[in-house]
Write a structure and sequence with these properties.
Length: 219
């Protein structure tokens, strides 16, 4: 059974994530323990709320360096919602705040003009599609149909410097925002796969299968 460490750093309700992992046959380990995290087959960084609070909680628990160490190991790493945003170098939410710097770029407020049916925060089901340069082959979205609906709740979005690291985008207001990123063994979802029904469970299953494949190849 694939062991997935779910980082416990005092941000957000993670029960839906651990329940989702259990339902697809993985073994979730909710922890902030260094040894348990580094020995896990994969790592998920969840999170809801403010960027500054999330980063401060990671620092207070001495988890920033540990996250970098895990990513350097080459094992699969998944950031969800705030967990995706913190992958970037900085955020403008409530002033300047430094992120993990795993992906070059910054986090900004949704830069859009809102219509009568749109507001912030963006709380809704919305479509994801690959950007014009990209495809979903060999990613966690490989078996996801283009324009599938997933569940969002956020007001800020990631702006990666390297557009090749944008895995999906989503239209809201008068433009598109980055709704998923991919770089080497790092994936980030702005949406919540654990709250996106069968489609989201399938994405998490892809995460588990990619982890199983890496384990098989390394052994």
């Amino acid at each position: 059974m694939i062991k997935v460490a779910v980082l416990d750093y005092g941000i957000g309700n993670v029960r839906s994530i651990t329940n989702a992992l259990t339902s697809i046959g993985a073994e979730p380990i909710l922890t902030s323990d260094n040894e348990l995290i580094l020995s896990a087959d994969a790592l998920i960084l969840p999170g809801v709320g403010a960027f500054a609070k999330g980063m401060q909680n990671l620092k207070d628990r001495n988890l920033v360096g540990l996250i970098h160490q895990f990513v350097d190991s080459g094992k699969p790493f998944l950031g969800i919602c705030l967990g995706m945003q913190m992958l970037l170098e900085e955020s403008e939410e409530f002033g300047f705040n430094k992120g993990l710097g795993l992906i070059k770029g910054k986090v900004v407020k949704l830069p859009l003009k809102l219509g009568n049916e749109e507001k912030l925060p963006h709380v809704s089901w919305n479509e994801i599609s690959p950007p014009s340069h990209g495809r979903w082959n060999n990613t966690l979205l490989e078996s996801t149909a283009i324009s599938s609906d997933v569940y969002f709740i956020h007001s800020y979005v990631a702006l990666p410097n390297d557009q090749s690291e944008v895995l999906s985008h989503t239209f809201y207001g008068d433009g598109y925002f980055c709704s998923a990123v991919q770089k080497d063994n790092i994936t980030g979802f702005q949406f919540h796969p654990e709250k996106s029904g069968a489609l989201g469970l399938n994405m998490l299953s892809e995460f588990i299968e990619s982890t199983r494949k890496i384990n098989y190849e390394s052994n």
